[in-house]
């Protein structure tokens, strides 16, 4: 589990401010982040592993400033995108999972063993040699999870991982995220996904407007929607 800290973090895209003076310390195992489209929540989580660099303020992971120690931080933080096609990089399912480990310099035996175990964990063994981009939407998201988790990060950040899925796969991915041993930080519009989390943060127009238990934070968010 990682200790993630935002200190006076602000960011803008051109003239549009998307985050303003955000201060957070994330240490819980299950953290949900909710907010309307354009509220800044996706930008917030992309700051955690350096996909976005803050224009002011600092983001640290276990005391390391993300901008200065991006490589070390990315070994600790696994990132899951909304659209798994954005992170599938190899032709077959097995190759895509193994690719992460090859970059870590493991030998072939270690790579094969861990890849096989990851495919089994996510129910992808029978698709191991299939073209990755021909999987169903749910299978692609499982592949994205497998390819990240095989590297054994301390924290998983998932940016709306169920948005493109049907109801059955929403449930499947939700159950997986609930039971992973890693720290999990999830941006979502599916509020039921974070109802049993340890903490939920509500972002509105680039600011933290609620932060606490799921019951309190989701009630505040529903009030905003109303």
Automatic annotation (TrEMBL):
Protein family: Belongs to the ABC transporter superfamily.
Ranges for domain ABC transporter: 4-226
Annotated protein name in UniProt: ABC transporter ATP-binding protein
GO cellular component, one term: ATP-binding cassette (ABC) transporter complex
PROSITE patterns linked: ABC_TRANSPORTER_1 (PS00211), ABC_TRANSPORTER_2 (PS50893)
Pfam families tied to this protein: ABC_tran
UniProt KW keywords: ATP-binding, Nucleotide-binding, Transport
One function term, GO molecular function aspect: ATPase-coupled transmembrane transporter activity
């Amino acid at each position: 589990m990682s200790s993630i800290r935002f200190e006076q973090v602000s960011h803008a895209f051109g003239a549009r401010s998307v985050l303003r003076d955000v201060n957070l310390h994330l240490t819980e195992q299950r953290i949900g982040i909710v907010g309307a489209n354009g509220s800044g929540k996706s930008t917030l989580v992309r700051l955690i592993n350096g996909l976005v660099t803050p224009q002011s303020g600092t983001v640290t992971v276990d005391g390391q400033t993300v901008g200065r120690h991006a490589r070390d931080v990315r070994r600790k933080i696994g990132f899951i995108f909304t659209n798994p096609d954005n992170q599938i990089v190899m032709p077959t399912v097995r190759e895509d999972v193994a690719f992460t480990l090859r970059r870590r310099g493991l030998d072939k035996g270690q790579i094969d063993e861990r890849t096989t175990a990851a495919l089994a964990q996510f129910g992808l063994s029978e698709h191991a040699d299939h073209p990755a981009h021909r999987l169903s939407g749910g299978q692609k998201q499982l592949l994205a999870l497998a390819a990240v988790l095989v590297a054994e990060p301390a924290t998983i950040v998932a940016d709306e991982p169920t948005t493109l899925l049907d109801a059955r796969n929403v449930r499947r991915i939700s159950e997986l995220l609930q039971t992973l041993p890693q720290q999990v930080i999830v941006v979502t519009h599916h509020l039921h996904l974070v109802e049993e989390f340890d903490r939920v943060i509500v972002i509105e127009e680039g600011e933290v407007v609620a932060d606490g238990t799921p019951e309190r934070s989701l009630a505040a968010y529903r009030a905003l929607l109303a």
